[in-house]
């Protein structure tokens, strides 16, 4: 009886099973058809549509890369509860990849063709700027370092790279930006004009954010444990996170046609500040898993995810 359902990893795994969703069955075909129609009727400029597609391409590539990038971490985890959780995370990232692939096939490419814009594959190198490439290269290196030396410090760096920067700051900021552009919720100062509300895209994003609330919470718990019980210097965590933030800012600065990058970058910095406070403050607590995955679109309720 090695499973501990009362551990935070065990609780997060149970929550993942309970909140399972299917990127095909649970995102209505009618919503995607409506999204495609709204894009065509909106008639975005080529620059606007390129930028919106770029955001989706970056997400799709990031989700796809994670199955490989997390492999070293899954190999070094000893606790069965952690192993179960990381297995659920890799599975969920694969589902997210599937959603973005479906959206590109059923909405993005048909809309681009109808609008007379160039149809571009989501893997085209034009989408990926230097900061995005370098951030994911550094993440891959941090994960691979675990196979060379599985030390508490290397684990902290690995969690910081993926769970706390890529998922907690970069992804959550990007999702919040999409939400602000394409739903009635989010920030009013991000969109440079009124864009169509896209129920299919926002529904998929909402479900993905719910999954990633668990991923972020688990990573935060692991880093707090390393600091409080394994002797990791909190300054190592702060330095690692702050060293990666220029890449996040650089990625956000590439989006200027449809959205204002300034409030987006400020949002990402605020996310990082809150993460550092929770991780390094011995009296702070990582929010309960139900709070981490509860998403209704408002800033108040998404502050923890």
Can you walk me through this structure?
Mean pLDDT is 91; it is low at 295-305. The protein has 305 residues and is mostly helical. The chain has 12 helices and no strands. 72% of the residues lie in helices and 0% in strands. The protein is globular, with a radius of gyration of 19 Å.
What is the name of the CATH class?
A: Mainly Alpha
The largest sheet is: none
Q: Span from first to last CA?
A: 31 Å
Helix fraction, binned, reads over 70%
Structural class: mainly alpha
Helices and strands, in N-to-C order? HHHHHHHHHHHH
Rounded to an integer in angstroms, the radius of gyration calculated over CA atoms is: 19 Å
Q: Count the domains.
A: 1
Q: Could you please say which CATH topology applies here?
A: Ribonucleotide Reductase, subunit A
CATH superfamily: Ribonucleotide Reductase, subunit A
How many β-strand runs?
A: 0
**If helices are DSSP runs of H or I spanning 4 or more residues, what is the number of helices?**
12
* Average pLDDT: 91
The best one-word shape is: globular
Low-pLDDT runs of 5+ residues are: 295-305
- The CATH architecture classification is Orthogonal Bundle
The percentage of residues in β strands lies in under 5%
Brief descriptors of the model:
Ribonucleotide Reductase, subunit A; mainly alpha; 72% helix; 12 helices; disordered C terminus
């Amino acid at each position: 009886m090695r499973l501990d359902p009362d551990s935070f990893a065990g609780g997060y795994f149970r929550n993942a099973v309970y909140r399972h969703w299917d990127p095909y069955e649970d995102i209505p075909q009618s919503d995607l058809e409506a999204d495609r129609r709204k894009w065509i009727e909106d008639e975005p400029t080529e620059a606007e549509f390129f930028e919106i597609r770029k955001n989706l391409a970056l997400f799709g590539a990031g989700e796809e890369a994670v199955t490989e990038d997390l492999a070293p971490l899954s190999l070094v985890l000893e606790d069965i509860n952690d192993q179960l959780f990381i297995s659920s995370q890799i599975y969920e990232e694969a589902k997210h990849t599937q959603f973005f692939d479906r959206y590109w096939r059923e909405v993005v490419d048909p809309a681009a063709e109808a609008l007379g814009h160039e149809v571009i594959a989501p893997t085209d190198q034009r989408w990926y700027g230097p900061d995005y490439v370098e951030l994911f290269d550094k993440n891959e290196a941090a994960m691979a370092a675990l196979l060379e030396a599985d030390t508490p410090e290397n684990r902290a760096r690995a969690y910081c790279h993926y769970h706390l920067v890529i998922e907690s700051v970069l992804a959550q900021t990007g999702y919040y930006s999409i939400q602000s552009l394409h739903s009635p919720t989010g920030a009013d100062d991000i969109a440079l004009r009124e864009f169509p509300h896209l129920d299919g895209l926002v529904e998929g994003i909402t479900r993905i954010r719910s999954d990633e609330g668990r991923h972020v919470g688990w990573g935060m718990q692991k880093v707090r444990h390393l600091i409080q019980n394994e002797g990791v210097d909190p300054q190592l965590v702060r330095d690692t996170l702050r060293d990666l933030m220029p890449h996040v800012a650089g990625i956000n600065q590439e989006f200027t046609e449809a959205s204002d990058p300034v409030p987006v970058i400020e949002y990402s910095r605020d996310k990082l500040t809150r993460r550092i406070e929770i991780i390094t403050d011995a009296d702070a607590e990582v929010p309960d898993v139900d709070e981490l995955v509860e998403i209704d679109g408002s800033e108040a309720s998404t502050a923890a995810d």
